[in-house]
Every structure is written in C-alpha cells, then in structure tokens.
Specification:
Structural class: alpha+beta
Low-confidence stretches: none
Strand content: 15-25%
Strand order of the largest sheet: 1-4-5-2
Shape: elongated
Number of strands: 6
Radius of gyration: 22 Å
Distance between the termini: 60 Å
Number of helices: 3
Helix content: 25-40%
C-alpha cells in the first residue's frame, strides 16, 4: 500500500466514509484497503486520525444468525454474573472491582 491521501477535518471528498459512517448506512468495508485518511489537529497532542473507505466498494453488513444471537446473549449474561456470588445482578459487573455492588459493600464492611 503506497501513500494514501490525507485530508483535513471535514474536507474529505464525497464517496468516502469512516467505519462508523459506513455502519450507519448499513455497510462494512468488506476487505478493501484504506482509501484516505482525515486528520483533525489538536493543540497539545498529535492529530486525531480517521481512516476513510470507498462507499461504492463497501459491502452490506452481514445479518445476525440465530447462533450469533445466542452467543451474544451468553456473553452478555457472563458480563452480568458476579464471579463471587454467582448471581445475575442485572448490570455489567465492573472489571475494576471484579464483583457486584453487594459483594463490594460486604467486602468493605469486613475490612472496616
């Protein structure tokens, strides 16, 4: 892949889109190479960079199969299950604590 064109923020030509913009259109890059990039300048750090893909070469998003829905439901259930008390707490257990709010409160109470 040689050099790619670089555009300033909001000055990219029509026909190019970021991954998020493609997704909003119901498309995906579909294995194509990056067509260009956008740079948004920042004051104290390096510029923000977003890669652009050609809309005409994008493919439609793949449909979710029943097996994928089942796998997603199982993964979300695992995120909601506290590893300590093994209960589904109804929200994603924070990885910073590694336990639900009830277990954390009990742990803090024991420590005090």
């Amino acid at each position: 892949m040689g050099t790619i064109p670089v555009y300033r923020w909001r000055l990219a030509p029509d026909g190019l889109a970021t991954r998020r913009q493609l997704r909003a259109l119901g498309l995906r890059p579909g294995g194509q190479e990056v067509a260009a990039q956008i740079e948004r300048p920042r004051r104290r750090r390096g510029p923000l960079v977003a890669y652009l893909y050609r809309i005409d070469a994008a493919k439609p998003v793949r449909a979710m199969t029943p097996a994928r829905w089942a796998a997603l439901a199982k993964a979300n259930a695992a995120r909601r299950t506290c590893p300590r008390c093994r209960l589904d707490v109804g929200y994603c257990v924070p990885t910073s604590h590694g336990m639900c709010g009830r277990c954390l409160a009990a742990e803090e109470q024991r420590a005090a």
